TrEMBL record:
Topology of the protein relative to the lipid bilayer: Multi-pass membrane protein
Keywords, alphabetical: Cell membrane, Lipoprotein, Membrane, Transmembrane, Transmembrane helix, Transport
Primary location class: membrane
Protein name: Lipoprotein-releasing ABC transporter permease subunit
Regions crossing the membrane: 29-52, 278-303, 323-343, 350-368, 388-407
Taxonomy of the source species: Bacteria, Pseudomonadati, Pseudomonadota, Gammaproteobacteria, Cellvibrionales
Cell compartment(s), UniProt: Cell membrane
Record flagged with keyword Signal: no
Domain MacB-like periplasmic core: 31-222
Length: 422
């Protein structure tokens, strides 16, 4: 005889297919639905958590890979920025620094106009704090600092598409100037012509706002007043604000100010974390509903098996064995559900990015746009810890759901059940 006996009987009940009896057929149908619901719930939660992990990764590695963790500025025209960059890089908690000159302006190509943030960079130091070079062609930085009559500019793909401009074409950049404080008059806007030497596509919102030029060109656009600063990367991005505040207190020159990534992208990070928690909770509830569908399945099995339970009791089966019989049946449903759901979820997490991209190409639409969402594609990062957590939670809920009908089965009175059936 197969041991343990409760598990053997429970597995027999779970796999029974007696199509000749209406009640048994209905029980098998409902049991199948419960299993399918659990499979889909587990798979969906694994995919959703992987997508949320993907958004978190893209913010940390792609968006904050291109943009600095923190930047300090000073409006004084007498700052030696090379020296300040060296001092910032030597500060505790800072891993790299690069000087930058930022100017807000307008890009104009024919009748098309687009706002943009012009960053004047030093190609030798910008690569220490930004991964922007990963999205550029070799030699693009060199083209910015060439001695050609017309300076070069690197545009984000979103700006280039809006202006309908390509590499090698001419672009005008207009920078409004503030009024003259001495005369109270209005200063003329700075206008400069550039040649587009490259167009980067990072797949982030930076494609719609960022343009790169040589440091001296940005300084000329700003009129030499304001906009200069030092960008930096820190060892622990989550502690960037603390490092940034300590740095401001330690710099030898007065008048420094700035911000860190929590001020520019902190809301985005918090939104991703909150969405991850809320979506995870909602999908967890879906799993809970699917798991507790096992209750209705086992209740019907208990009603259908009253006679069998009574016979087992008269043959000497204990209350504990009857209880374990139906727990075994529910555990099998839960185990099949979480295993198949976990497998389906892992596969879905690995292919969801390519699947969505394929659907976009097939139907000619774009589900995510980087001017609205952090990135213009659906990222996914599978974490095996999440898979184990979801599968474990789904199986545990399935076991909990079996307790009530199993207890009801263990309380069946043999005499009453046999008198009712026979």
């Amino acid at each position: 005889m197969f041991r343990p006996l409760p598990a053997y009987i429970g597995l027999r009940y779970a796999g029974a297919q007696r199509s000749g009896q209406d009640s048994a057929g209905l029980v098998s149908f409902i049991s199948g639905l419960s299993t399918i619901g659990l499979i889909l719930g587990v798979a969906l939660m694994i995919v959703v958590m992987s997508v949320m992990n993907g958004f978190d990764r893209e913010l940390r590695e792609r968006i904050l890979g291109i943009m600095p963790h923190a930047t300090v500025y000073n409006a004084s025209p007498d700052i030696d920025w090379t020296a300040i960059r060296g001092e910032v890089a030597a500060m505790p908690g800072v891993t790299a620094a690069a000087e930058v000159w930022q100017v807000n302006g307008l890009a104009k190509n024919g009748l098309d106009v687009s706002p943009l943030l012009v960053q004047g960079i030093n190609p030798e130091t910008i690569i220490n704090v930004s991964t922007i070079q990963e999205f550029l062609q070799p030699g693009s930085f060199a083209a910015l600092t060439s001695d050609a009559a017309e300076p070069g500019i690197i545009l984000g793909k979103g700006i280039a598409d809006k202006l309908d401009i390509a590499v090698g074409e001419q672009l005008s950049v207009i920078v409004p100037q503030s009024g003259d404080s001495e005369t109270g008059g209005r200063a003329a806007a700075q206008l400069a012509g550039f040649k587009v030497v490259d167009i980067f596509h990072s797949g982030t919102a930076l494609d719609h706002s960022l343009a790169l030029v040589d440091w001296q060109q940005a300084k000329a656009l700003s009129g030499g007043a304001g906009g200069a600063g030092v960008q930096m990367r820190v060892e622990n991005m989550l502690k960037s604000f603390v490092v940034f505040q300590q740095l401001l207190r330690q710099l030898p020159v007065e008048g420094f100010y700035g911000n860190d990534w929590t001020g520019t992208h902190g809301n985005l990070y918090q939104a991703i974390q909150m969405s991850r928690n809320l979506v995870g909770l909602l999908v967890f509830l879906i799993i809970a509903i699917a798991a507790f569908n096992v209750v209705s399945t086992l209740v019907m099995v208990v009603i259908d098996k009253h006679g069998d339970i009574a016979i087992l009791r008269t043959m000497g089966a204990s209350t504990r064995e009857i209880l374990l019989t139906f727990v075994s049946q529910g555990a099998l449903v839960g185990l099949v559900g979480v295993l198949l759901g976990g497998l389906l979820g892992v596969i879905g997490s690995l292919v969801v990015t390519d699947l969505v991209s394929g659907l976009e190409s097939l139907f000619g639409i774009q589900f995510l746009k980087s001017d609205v969402y952090p990135v213009d594609y659906l990222p996914s990062q599978l974490e095996w810890g999440d898979v184990a957590l979801v599968m474990g939670a789904g199986f545990l809920l399935s076991l909990i759901a079996t307790l009530y009908p199993a207890l009801q089965a263990s309380r069946v009175q043999p005499a009453a059940a046999l008198r009712q059936d026979y």
